[in-house]
Amino acid sequence: GQQVMQIPQYQHVQEGEDFTTYCNSSTTLSNIQWYKQRPGGHPVFLIQLVKSGEVKKQKRLTFQFGEAKKNSSLHITATQTTDVGTYFCAGRAGANNLFFGTGTRLTVIP
Amino acid sequence: DTGVSQDPRHKITKRGQNVTFRCDPISEHNRLYWYRQTLGQGPEFLTYFQNEAQLEKSRLLSDRFSAERPKGSFSTLEIQRTEQGDSAMYLCASSLWENMNTEAFFGQGTRLTVV
User: Fold this and answer.
1) A31, CA 20 to 30 Å: which among A69, A87, B17, B90?
2) CB A99 within 8 A of CB A30
3) Contacts of residue B42 in chain A, CB cutoff 8 Å?
4) Is A42 an interface residue toward B (CB < 8 Å)?
5) Nearest chain A Cα to B93, which residue?
6) Residue A87: CB partners within 8 Å, gap ≥ 6?
7) pLDDT tens-place string over residues B1-52
8) Beta carbons of A49 and A31 less than 8 angstroms apart
9) pLDDT attached to residue B102
């Protein structure tokens, strides 16, 4: 079955440092989405990537979709305490359902 | 509030009892997903509907789990003969499936505790 793995599982950074999480799929994806889940909250959509090699930016967040459409990354520049939470990638193969990755839990130390 | 709503927010049940959860999606959304999430894990796919049709169900899902979306609007998830391992947060999400460029909106979830 389809599997989506993320590394690292946990990341502690000092406020102001950069952060990157990586997502790898066992199958080629039609698109990939990224979600953020705050402690005690539910996943909230951040962005969707569709094209091979696509790069999208949202302020300090940079999202990238691999050329083979099997991997993706999220990079946060100069982390802030408001960035705390768990970041999930979610991949879709074809028109099927959305499979979530294992998540990376980010802690920002002030 | 026009977001995805789930009811109840919390449910405590004894092992062996049946439970049913309800999800009301965003009104114009035609896709509805059920996920299960345990502490420290990502949402685990259970099943999804497009309108009233159940298009896919996880092969890992026990036969004790069943879901319906009879009129293509709200959905129910039933767990029969609950076990302690069923304790988790059950998340519902909905999306408007017009093409593949769509985001899923999640509800607050139903936290199930089986004692």
Assistant:
1) B90
2) no
3) 6, 88, 100-103
4) yes
5) A43
6) A6, A21, A34, A35, A36, A37, A74, A103, A104, A106
7) 579 999 999 999 999 999 999 999 999 899 999 999 999 899 999 999 999 9
8) yes
9) 76
Q: Which two tokens stand for residue B107?
A: 């509800």
In whole angstroms, give the CA distance from residue B58 to residue B45.
7
* Residue B65 in tokens: 């789990």
pLDDT tens column, A7-50: 999 999 999 999 999 999 988 998 999 999 999 999 999 999 99
Residue B98: which residues within 8 A CB-CB, separation 6 or more?
Answer: none
* A100 and A4 Cβ atoms separated by less than 8 Å: yes
Query: pLDDT digit string (tens) for A67-107?
Result: 999 999 999 999 999 999 999 999 987 767 788 999 999 99
The residue count of chain A comes to 110
